[in-house]
Amino acid sequence: MTISFELPERVIQETELLKGIAEHVMRPYSRQLDENEHERPWMFINTMWPIMRDQQAKALAKLKTSQQSEKPAKDKPSMAYIRLIALAEMLSWGDVGQYLCMPAPLLAGSAVEAVGTTEQKLKFLTRFAEGDDPKWGAMAMTEPGAGSDTSAIETTAVLDSATNEWVLNGWKIFCTNGKLAFEESNGIIVVWATVDKSAGRAGMKPFVIEAKTPGVKIAKVELKHGIRASDTAAIVLDNARVPYDNLLGSPEVRTGHGTAGFKGAMATFDASRPMVAASALGVGRAALEFVQQTLKAHGLEINYDKPRSQLTAIERDLMEMESQLKAAWLLTLRSAAMLDHGEHNSLEASMAKAKAGKAVTQITQKAVEILGPMGYSRDWLVEKWMRDGKINDIYEGTGQINTLIVARRILGYTSRELQ
User: Fold this and answer.
1) Which positions are annotated as active-site residues?
2) What are the residue boundaries of the structural domains of the chain, listed by start?
3) CATH assignment of 9-129, given 3.40.50.150, 3.40.50.300, 1.10.540.10, 2.40.50.140?
């Protein structure tokens, strides 16, 4: 049996198109957008909106067709997630801060896809498949007292039986694209809140907050170490009223069960972590290629035929950077392919995320080290890639948390048994 690690021809062709955008629309503005935090990358946004809108329209049309069919079609794997990670990697190679501003459902879409009903998917995602104005989605999970431990969420959702609305109160932080989704477009934010604190994780539910909902306020937008083109918002919910049907999935609280509770949150991360890993590797590849090109211009190229003992220290460093990048990419491909085949990928998604976050940190730091003072200066983008890359080891579950998840699943321990 032959196993191919090459991307399908269709994905390769799409990636070549994205390379043109990354090289000519994104990369030339990287430094300007980094120096002027939260300046919107409108050229990139306006270029990507028709592409993302059309892709969303095709996905929804397919969903409608499958809903109307009496017998579910036995299609080949869709390659949807493979295409998404290829997109994330290439656009992050261009500029990861701009990539995070891509007009699309993003994490909100991942949550809707993971735990929403078919009707909810059509209702909340249709806006991303129509219109001339770009729209964004965001997800609000993290709180001042609930970071990696999502079960510590304090934001509450109480049903007002008189109006059949949910009333949400709480404070969310570090919400990527929160301001874009809520204040600057007809977007959505998926907010995770508890409907029953006594039920623990089973009481966690996702709610769709539509743009400009009364009682919701963008409290601040963070100033950051990297990914400066992307807004990272803090959100206050003060008696925000949400229609009953905006709760994704079932409102029933079943301790130890229920995909819309903690398992629903984890299912969202299973879908998003491969994309975060791919994004990290785009940044890592940008740094590695720049170092290789710079050294080549000075007459240094790796001779792969030499034994390791005869290589220079820099050659060994470059080979290690390459191997780390390729190993993380293979893990990322596997985690995405499993989703395309309808398989559970919790272990593999965490493996890819943990490996990619560590790899991009090591690769970008080594790139700055090899290039010396020029690598550290703002004349080149290498120092920016080092700052941009680090976030991939932090958000969507830190490297430590994802490593812990991997250990628990491999060893068969519960979260109480292995902390």
Assistant:
1) 396
2) 9-129, 137-246, 262-411
3) 1.10.540.10
Question: Are 317 and 302 in contact, with CB atoms under 8 Å apart?
Answer: no
- Distances from the Cα of 387 to the Cα of 325, 373, 392, angstroms: 18, 16, 10
Q: Strands 137-140 and 188-194: what pairing?
A: parallel
**Contact 321/366 with Cβ under 8 angstroms?**
yes
Distance in angstroms (rounded) separating the CA atoms of residues 179 and 170: 17
**Rounded CA gap, 235 and 210, in Å?**
13
Specify the residue for token string 């999970």. Answer: 141
- What are the tens digits of pLDDT across the range 132-163? 999 999 999 999 988 777 778 899 999 999 99
pLDDT tens-digit readout, 325-379: 999 999 999 999 999 999 999 999 999 999 999 999 999 999 999 999 999 999 9
Cα atoms in the Cβ-side hemisphere of radius 13 Å centred on 121: 20
∠ Cα 32 37 38 (to 5°): 110
Chain length of the chain: 419
Residue 16 pLDDT class (50, 70, 90 cuts): very high
HEC readout, 33-84: HHHCCCCCCHHHHHHHHHHHHHHHHHHHHHHHHHHHCCCCCCCCCCCHHHHH
DSSP string, 308-368: GGGS-HHHHHHHHHHHHHHHHHHHHHHHHHHHHTT---HHHHHHHHHHHHHHHHHHHHHHH
The larger pLDDT score, comparing residue 92 to residue 150, is at 92
Name the CATH superfamily for 137-246: Butyryl-CoA Dehydrogenase, subunit A, domain 2 (2.40.110.10)
CA-CA distance, 191 to 209, in Å (whole number)? 7
Homologous superfamily (CATH) for 262-411:
Butyryl-CoA Dehydrogenase, subunit A, domain 3 (1.20.140.10)
Q: What share of the chain is helix, strand, coil (3-state, %, to 5)?
A: 55, 15, 30
Average pLDDT over residues 58-81: 76
Are the folds of 9-129 and 137-246 the same?
Answer: no
